[in-house]
């Protein structure tokens, strides 16, 4: 039995297990299983591998996309540049980290882009934000990172004024704000300055329409949740695990 799985903590709402279980059934892929491995600390990762020597591939989610890197033998070029891993391939006794979030995000965002979508705000600074920034660089879209506290490369939410909002027409939420069960939360941005020229993208997919997206829709913006990104990154992971 070939085993694949997901590490993270907690894992009460796992898209990946449902996706791959359905994929194996629909495509008649036998002898494969996908499990969830909620590990409370990344230090438990070596023990998990020892318990499951049949692992062929893993996905990685919050909070381990960056923490897992020291435990790997090598990284793909993109994962090394991004500094975050969401996919691990086990091959010939080596553990190699990849980032398929960047593929999922870029390929789901690109069809929505208009000529006036030429500057972005990235809300959040975690592992997912790093993949988003890398994709925006690939798409030649300059971006500004927004965090709770201003830093060398970030601005604070309190700095977002009318001019910033009008000139940054793509706004991407990479934080968990608004994710089930905290569906009434949303990033603290001045939504009154959003217009029909804005594109709001939320990496959260549960609920399908977060408060962030609802507030954008109310202002006439185009909106997109993270569901297609998840499907595309999962398929990209499957391709990586099965490369010959």
From TrEMBL:
One of its GO terms (biological process) is chorismate biosynthetic process. This is Shikimate dehydrogenase. It is an enzyme of class 1 (oxidoreductase). It comes from the Bacteria. Its EC number is 1.1.1.25. InterPro entries: Aminoacid_DH-like_N_sf, NAD(P)-bd_dom_sf, Shikimate_DH-bd_N, Shikimate_DH_fam. The keyword Amino-acid biosynthesis applies. GO terms for cellular component: cytosol. It comes from Chitinophaga flava. The lineage of its organism: Bacteria, Pseudomonadati, Bacteroidota, Chitinophagia, Chitinophagales.
